Amino acid sequence: MISRQSIDAVINASAIDEVVGDYIALKKRGANLLGRCPFHDEKTPSFTVSPSKGIYKCFGCGKAGNSVSFLMEHDSLSFADAIRKLASKYNIVLEEDNAVNSEAYNEQQRKREALLIALEFAKKYFVEQLYTEEGKRVGDSYFRERGFTKQTIDDFDLGYSPQAWDSLVKAATSQQFNLDHFVEAGLIKQREDGGYFDLFRHRVIFPIHDLTGKVIAFGGRQLVKDEKSPKYLNSPETEVYHKSHVLYGIFQSKKTIKQVNNCYLVEGYTDV
Ligand code: ZN
Predict the structure, then answer these.
(1) What's the gap in Å between 243 CA and the centre of ligand 1?
(2) pLDDT per residue as tens, the chain (272 positions)
(3) Using CA atoms, how far apart are residues 265 and 28, in angstroms rounded to an integer?
(4) Which residues have CB less than 5 Å away from ligand 1 (the ion)?
(5) How far apart are CA 193 and CA 11, in angstroms?
């Protein structure tokens, strides 16, 4: 059970226009916002969102409610899971009692958080490596050749993984990280003798962000042709990364997609 205080904190923090706006394009109409209803098929928008009242109502199919009921309906979630999803969006820590299933949930949540922390550390590490002598020579020069501006490199957190076998292993170890989370994230691997090595080596790095901007995976492009490893290396599916649920670049582009009501889908990282 999630405490009443936590539920209230989540409901208070959840802005209906932001929650609905993660799913559908909304246009301002007086004090309200208007969009195409996600619950029935319509050409003329009749789905109305009232930020001041914190509610939505569809004048076509009659569906109505608040942020929590929107997520329950849209994502087929239970009330508790809708609260958890909103808590994660707004970085609210939930108080939950010690029921068995919430313990299992807490365990899963701890695992997710540990993974996200490892991924964030790796992202910062790869970004820093782009500005070392090797990174400038190999990584940054590749981006510049492809016509990437500094702005693009910053906006997409682009980075570089050095040629050495264990540079990320060393960096994570020096910060006393538990390497298990890096193994799980598909960043490093354990050798038979017990030691560890980096999986992303000598590559430019494209971090993959979720809708809220958290790094959940990486793509790495090989810079020097090596038949023994793939041209593109991608993170495996994990607790936080489900390939079929993520679109590369959506975090950086979602605001503009809504503003201009247009979106182009392209194939590769550099195409984006
Ligand atoms: Zn409707």
Answers:
(1) 29
(2) 888 889 999 999 999 999 999 999 999 999 999 999 999 999 999 999 999 999 999 999 999 999 999 999 988 888 999 999 999 999 898 887 755 566 777 788 788 889 999 999 999 999 999 999 999 999 999 999 999 999 999 999 999 999 999 999 999 999 999 999 999 999 999 999 999 999 999 999 999 998 878 899 999 999 888 778 889 999 999 989 989 888 999 989 987 887 788 999 999 999 99
(3) 26
(4) 37, 39-40, 58, 60-61
(5) 51
